Amino acid sequence: MDKLQLLQERKAKIAEAGKEIRKQIEELVDEDSFVELSAFSFSKNEFYGEDAAGEGVITGFATVNGYPFYLVAQNFKVLSGGVSKANCDKIAKCLDAAEKNATPVIYLLNTLGVQVGEGVTVLEGLGKLLMRGTQLKGVVPQYAIVNGEVYGSAAMLAAIADFSFFLEKKSVLAVNSPLVLSAKSGKNLPKEEVGGAKALDKTGIPAFEVKDIAEIKAKIAAISELLEMPMIDAELNEPVTALNEGTPTAEKLLSVFEEPIEVGMDGEKEVRTVLGRIGGISVAAVVFDGGENGVELTAAKLAKIRSFAELACCYQLPFITFADVKGIEPAMCVNNSRVMKEAAEYLDMLDTIDTAKIAVVYKKAVGLGYSLFAAKSVGFDYTCAFANAKIALFDSVQGALVELGDEKADKAALSAKYADENSDPVNAAKNGYIDAIIEPQFVKQYLIASLQMLAK
Fold first, then answer.
1. What is the pTM of this model?
2. For residue 94, which of 121, 65, 46, 54 has the smallest C-alpha distance?
3. 3-218 is classed in which CATH architecture?
4. d(CA 354, CA 381)
5. Taking a C-beta distance cutoff of 8 angstroms, is the pair 414, 341 a contact?
6. E-strand spans in 329-452?
């Protein structure tokens, strides 16, 4: 057969096998920017007796809003996106190139699991792939799009990625088959209630739930701009007047940021993790949204904060906390959980962050909540508090009595010591623990000034 004819036949076969996934790649990247890698790689699946065109995965590089990316796209039309050793090797080769060229990676994941017939060989391939993805963590940003059903060990790529996107009414992620998980639970659940974004709100994996690929493209472009351009020109002296109107809230605090991006909105909603700019400077911020009572800490809340602090550490973002937080939730189930381990691991990560660490006590910082998220002694470079904030060892006189558990305690003395008027920021400022007590509407100016001094 003429070699040119053979080339044309193979190109036609590859194009036909990847028609649908290539259309999605076109939607995600800039027009005519995608360049495919290892396009002609083939392997034979002995169990099915079929060729795996392009190993069932498309790899290459492209730009998204002008920013360069390497792409890995599982092709569901080839053996249901089945993972093979050759498939894993091809992806790992792409990740090698991403590391060499310091370029972020986007995964489009869609697979029902491993290809039958390879046995332990495919497990070695998966081990290599997952380790390669892990080694890239903190080196280049990784974005995972759960582009349909993703089952088996390949689902781990969504956990390794810095940001995972779930498409509404389409994305399902599970290490085991949803049918098995549903049966084991004794319920007949639809797959979306097993592995959809809302069903996985305790995992810390879904960063965003979106409507379509266009929304993913916009989010990736916005995050890329924050990470690639850590400082841009911006308005520096604009007050946030809404913070002076009534009680400050987490929603009002979002006005401090220029175009904030909230990550992981569906998980642990009392802890809001936000990427954005303040005075043109890229930051990672934890905003506690405790309503009227303040946030009580659990293992899940601390895990979300620790993971976000790791992101700030990896990509050299200043780390800011907006505190409305008390200590650990007083409940048996919380006490018998990973809550103390998560607190310890958060502190370890906080110590690793070598960019600016800033705390704003906008409502309350009580007990361990103060120690973890505002104390100078854990590494915060600058700490300020709103004039009406509360900083104290205990949340109330009653709380002090319960904690101390001493019937002989002088209740009058405790009442005087822990009365609201003695829990204002002035008392903490006397000992140098609070750098400034501020009018809420001017918090942005204070943050900009401290960021300009401290940001690297």
1. 0.90
2. 54
3. Alpha-Beta Complex (3.90)
4. 11
5. no
6. 357-366, 382-386, 390-392, 436-438
